[in-house]
């Protein structure tokens, strides 16, 4: 095959790939930015989300709210960029809602806020001391994960709190669901600084 | 059709075909998630609820690709353990894989 012919094939392939693998067809976690002190409301708990936040101070709490119509089983994990400076950064999350178990005294003491009346809570945990490492294909970064768990969320008012029990600061990502969202490249480009470390 | 046009069309055609084959390769529901779904059904019977487990069912989003399937299987394995901690009255087999 001549160089001329080969280059035509490659060019044709690249142009087609742009048309076929358009952003709106690529399924992924929908990315969004969490800010301390603001509530992020999940618009559709049947889609997946990657929620990016940064602890600037030790006492910050991030809150996510969702309203499943029925109890909902969903994979949830918390991740941290794999960087030397974040070796000890282990943010934690709690799922708070009606019908969840009443936390033990130890767990209550760990929560960053008092439980609302009538609500129970489930706390996330780190399965392994050395933490699993994964490659996140959306931001193309390597992350530590606490170990993804399929939780059953109750119907109605559900909240997730993220805090830093050891008072460490730095970035984290709260992963929710499995890749079910259509990619939003506008959001991706405008918030790339938050998504990629 | 002019020869150069035919040649230029072959590349895109092969790319589309290979893409179709690639995207058609989904994973199958794994044993950990089968066990998790069964455990959630027992929880529903106990609490008189109907949990949406659609992600984990054979046609669910978990099985669209190998990466998602791995994440779901890990989450289901730990999910059964979590359910048993949350609901002491529940009895489900766990630990399909060690």
Task: Give the tags.
heterodimer; A: 197 residues; alpha+beta; Jelly Rolls; 7-stranded mixed sheet; 5-stranded mixed sheet; 4 helices; globular; B: 98 residues; mainly alpha; 60% helix
Q: Could you walk me through the main structural features you see in this protein, from its secondary elements to its overall organization?
A:
- The complex is a heterodimer of chains A (197) and B (98).
- Chain A has 197 residues and is an alpha+beta fold.
- Chain A is 17% helix and 37% strand.
- In chain A, the strands form three sheets. In chain A, strands 2, 4, 6, 9, 10, 11 and 13 form a seven-stranded mixed beta sheet that branches. Chain A has a five-stranded mixed beta sheet with strand order 3-5-12-7-8, with no helix packed on it. A two-stranded antiparallel sheet of chain A has the order 1-14.
- Chain B is mostly helical.
- Chain B has a domain at 26-86.
- Helices cover 60% and strands 0% of the residues of chain B.
- Chain B contains three helices and no strands.
- Chain B has helices at 3-23, 31-47, 66-86.
- Chain B is globular and about 35 Å long.
